[in-house]
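Reopening this one. Same input as before:
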Amino acid sequence: MSKPKTQTQLITRDLMRGQKITAMDALHNYGCWRLSARIADIRDLGIPVETKTIATSTGKHVAQYSIPIEYRKAMRAK
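Same output, byte for byte:
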């Protein structure tokens, strides 16, 4: 039986697949209450994560995280 993946592993996987993730996405998809801490963990691994502030449908501003396509392409080429 394989070991369950950590929140950091799941978030990294989805970011590497080109997904953009907000705190609400992280809560719903991974049960993660502290996305910014997981993003810090990912950055500590040397993976560049971009942060963009977006407006929600209610006008709130939240952080949206993504990994640049250039990095994703470079990792696929390895």
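So the earlier flakiness isn't reproducible anymore. For the record, The two ends are 28 Å apart (CA to CA).
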